[in-house]
Amino acid sequence: MTQTFNDLLKAAGIDPAAVCVIRHHTPERGKTFGTLHELWQGDPAGFTRYQATQEAGRPIFRQRTIWAAFVCPAPDETMFIGLFDAILAETRKADWLCDYRGDEPGGGAPVDIFTTQPRPELETYAGVLRVEWPDANRRTWARRAEGLVLPISAPEPATPAGPLVGDALIQGLAALGFSTAGTTKKLVQLRRDDLVVYVKRETELRPLVVHPHYIDVADALRALGGVDLPDPARAYINSNLRAFPAYHADHRESEGRYGFAIGVDTNRLGAVISLLEQRAKIWTPEGPVRTVAPEDDPLTERERLQAARVGQGQFRDALMIYWKGACPVAGVDHAGVLRASHIKAWRDASNAERLDPFNGLLLSAHIDALFDKHLLTFENDGRMRISSQISPENRARLGLDPSARIMGLDARHGPYLAYHRARFQP
User: Fold this and answer.
1) pTM, whole model, 2 decimals?
2) In principle, which of 150, 337, 364, 403 could form an S-S bond with 330, CB 3.0–4.6 Å?
3) Could you give the C-alpha distances from 39 to 20, 50, 162, in angstroms and in order?
4) What is the pLDDT of residues 83-109, one digit of tens each?
5) What does residue 191 show for φ and ψ, rounded to 5 degrees?
6) Pick from 18, 112, 10: nearest CA to 66
7) Which CATH superfamily groups domain 162-322?
8) Residue 382, phi-psi category: left (phi > 0), alpha (psi -120 to 50), beta (remainder)
9) What Rg value do the Cα atoms of the chain yield, rounded?
10) Which residues in the chain are classed under CATH 3.90.1150.40?
11) Residue 206 phi, psi (nearest 5)
C-alpha cells in the first residue's frame, strides 16, 4: 500500500529527484481571494500565472522540470492539486499585477517566468489527496521531493473505470479548471482560458465535443488509450456549437456548426485536455502561433496566415470539411497523411488568396507532392492530367488512373486551377 507521496511518484514512473514540491500557503490574505486555495478554485488562469512566476535565479525551480503543487484549504491541511511540466521561458520584469496580492511580482524586479503544463500522472488525486507536511518545514514552501517525506493522511482515491458521460464528465472538467460558459437542452459549453469544449447531455456516445481542428490529431488522441474516436475521424454537426466554425453544405437548408466528438475514460481526461492545449498552437520560425481560438478572441490574420503556411489552422479545417475528410483523388481518409495543398502557390498568392479555401485541395501526401511539382493538375471539370515525365510503371505504383476525375469542384476553384495548369509540366 502506498504510504508517502514519493511512493506515488515512483509508482507512476517518476523519479522524485526530478520533482520540486511546492506548498502554496501564506498567512497574507489576498486582494480578491482570501487564500491561495481560493485563488486555485476561483481563478485557475490567475493561479497558473501566479505559480509560473518565481523569484529570478532560484535553482530549485530552474533545475526541476516537474513541479508537484499543493495548496492549503485550512492552515493544517495540505492538498495535492497536480503535477506540472515547468520550463523557464524568460527572465524579465512582469508587465502584470500579481493575481493574488495585486502588487508587482518580485517587487518590480525581474522574475523568472515559466511555461507550465499539467501532467496526466496522478490527475485522479488532484483535489482529493492530503499529505502531512512536516512541522519543521512549515516556513519552507519549495523543497526537493527526494529529501521530503510526505505521509499520506487521507485515503487514496479509487480510480473509477469506464467512460465519462453527462454530469460526471462536466464534473471532471470542472476539477481540471473548466467553468460552464453556456447551456442548451442538448449541450453544455465549458471553457478554460482559450480552450472551449462541449458536453452532450442526452447521449453517452462520444459525449465530449472539441474543436474540429483536433480531427487532425486523431492518431495522437487514440495513442493515449481510453479515447473513443470515430473511424475514420470525422466532424460532428450541431447548430448549437456556437464557439466552433460554421458548416455549409448544399443539402442543408440552414447554417450548421461542426466539432469533433470523442469519448474519454475517467483516467484519461487530464491527458486528453493536456494534448488539446499543446496542439492548440504550432511552432513556426516566428514563434508559437494559435490555431484554435475562442469566439471572443478570434485568430488574427497573422496567425491564420502563419498556420495556413504550414498547412494547419482554419485553412486546413475548411478543406477537411469541404472534402469530407478525404482526398478527392485517392480516396484516402487518414487525416495524418492528408495535406492542405494550395493550388496557387503560397509564394505567388496574395494574403486573401492564401486563406481562401477555394485555393486549396485536400490531397494525400503522394498526390500533394506531384501537384506541388506541377507533375499533375486538374481541369475545371475535375479531369486529371498527368505529366508524361511520370512513367507508366510509376503511374501504376502511385495508383494514378488517367481517366480519373475529382468531383465537387466549385466555379470558384476555376481561376486557381487555370493558374496551376499554366505551370503544368506536360
Assistant:
1) 0.54
2) 364
3) 21, 9, 31
4) 999 999 999 999 889 989 889 998 899
5) -145, 140
6) 18
7) Protein of unknown function DUF2002 (3.90.1150.40)
8) left
9) 26
10) 162-322
11) 45, 70
